[in-house]
Specification:
The chain is built from 17 helices and no strands. It is an all-alpha fold and 460 residues long.
Length: 460
């Protein structure tokens, strides 16, 4: 267990892979459903089913991938080989996803989207679960861990900006933003750039973490996969944190999937206006807010800041989005700035998971970062699958016509109800559930002191 300080180069090098991972996630969350329904011409319900099935598979495979990396023994370490392999596979899969062949039948379009998105999500599992688990193992010291995850969150937000801005910027440069040919071209070019980002960032992370991915024989994993899985799922502290984060993530996914529909058909804004004048400020403020939330969590603990930020985000979403006037940029921009500040608090929930892993080690005597982070990713991806699937079905229910250049006037109001109260509900419920999380900072510090004494005795 390495207690030596970790250089900023290693922290940044480890974390940079999150740029590509998050760029792919946001690129697909924002643009994929709309691309396949309006450009490829796939029925929205079928698109929602294809995306939902793919993400569910991704979720199911996460704990298995975590377990595999926990038990892997190689000259490159436990986690690093999968960061390299997953980066290569994900780079190829993204290229295929936004370059579908010409297919006339709905079944053919559905089958292509399903098969390629399954490949995308399989590759995402291979890289993301070992990567996040490695972050929890680089250091045992609390402040070092906070710093490592701070770097990871920073590069995650860089990835968000790439996945969000690049497609819109390319489309804007082509002139006519409503031309299907231009939209298709912009998505293909953006897919190529994101593919390069994920490949390069994974290679950097693999190289810089050389020698840091060690196998600790004193903490080997002995139980079978299903026995260990059952043990983790009986950890009530973990389940409370997981459910709170999953419910809040449903709101985030729901928000991302429906956003372009809302801004175009409710407010009459072009894609470039939305991305550059609303979504870009939101994510920039979100990035800047990370330091604030880290600072305040050190002052008063993590629980109250996490609850307050997510709860206020939910209240804001419920109230303001049905009220915005048509064609106005300033009101949604103000909401985006406030929402970016509040949304930064969601990241606190993510950072607490390493505390839960320490608690599990105290109880079981085993280091199971891979399995815990795998189940964590599984829960997040189930929430993403749910959010994407219900978006597709709700579009059908409210009368949205796939492929049509115009929609009925009532569609905008119905989208506002989905984007406002529909999304905000999940944030509010997730924040309330988080209030029941019992592992305080003081208790976690006691856990770490006991673990340090235990490991020192093992070395004697």
């Amino acid at each position: 267990m390495n207690q030596n300080p970790i250089s900023k180069t290693v922290k940044a090098g480890y974390a940079v892979a999150e740029t590509g991972i998050t760029a792919v996630q946001l690129f697909t969350q924002i643009y994929l459903l709309k691309y396949y329904t309006e450009i490829v011409g796939l029925n929205s319900s079928l698109a929602g089913i294809a995306l939902g099935i793919s993400v569910i598979w991704d979720a199911i495979s996460d704990p298995l991938m975590g377990r595999i990396s926990d038990k892997t023994h190689s000259i490159w370490g436990r986690r690093r080989p999968f960061i390299l392999l997953g980066g290569i596979l994900l780079s190829i899969a993204v290229l295929l996803l936004f370059s579908p062949p010409s297919i006339s039948s709905q079944l053919g379009k559905f089958s292509y989207l399903l098969s390629v998105y399954l490949l995308v999500n399989t590759a995402m599992t291979v890289i993301s679960v070992p990567h996040i688990a490695l972050g929890g193992e680089l250091s045992f010291e609390r402040n070092e861990r906070t710093s490592i995850f701070g770097w990871r969150l920073f590069f995650s937000n860089v990835g968000m900006l790439i996945g969000m801005i690049v497609p819109a910027a390319i489309l804007q440069s082509l002139g006519d933003e409503f031309s299907k040919e231009n939209i298709s071209y912009s998505r293909i070019r953006a897919g190529e750039l994101v593919s390069i980002v994920i490949l390069v960032s994974s290679l950097i992370s693999f190289w810089v973490t050389k020698g840091r991915d060690t196998i600790r024989q004193d903490n080997s994993v002995s139980d079978s996969f299903f026995k260990s899985l059952a043990s983790v799922l009986k950890n009530k502290i973990f389940l409370i944190l997981l459910f709170a984060f999953v419910i809040a993530t449903i709101g985030r996914t729901f928000n991302s999937a429906i956003a372009l529909y809302y801004y175009e058909y409710r407010l009459g804004l072009k894609e470039s206006q939305v991305v550059l004048n609303i979504l870009l400020p939101f994510f920039l403020v979100l990035m800047l807010s990370i330091g604030f939330w880290v600072w305040i969590s050190k002052k008063v603990g993590k629980k109250i800041p996490a609850f307050s930020g997510v709860f206020l985000l939910g209240v804001l979403t419920v109230i303001v989005y049905p009220l915005f006037p048509y064609g106005e940029l300033r009101p949604p921009l103000i909401a985006a700035v406030l929402g970016g500040v509040f949304a930064g608090s969601i990241l606190i929930m993510d950072s607490i998971l390493t505390d839960v892993v320490d608690y599990d080690e105290l109880k079981t005597g085993e280091k199971r970062e891979g399995l815990y982070f795998g189940i964590w990713k599984m829960g997040v991806k189930f929430s993403q699958a749910f959010g994407i699937a219900i978006t597709g079905f709700l579009l059908d229910i409210i009368g949205f016509e796939s492929g049509a250049t115009t929609q009925g006037s009532e569609i905008g109001f119905r989208l506002a109800l989905i984007f406002g109260p529909g999304v905000g509900f999940f944030f509010i419920i997730g924040s309330i559930l988080f209030l029941f999380f019992p592992l305080t900072d003081e208790k976690h510090m006691q856990v770490q002191r006991i673990l340090l004494r235990r490991n020192q005795k093992r070395k004697q």
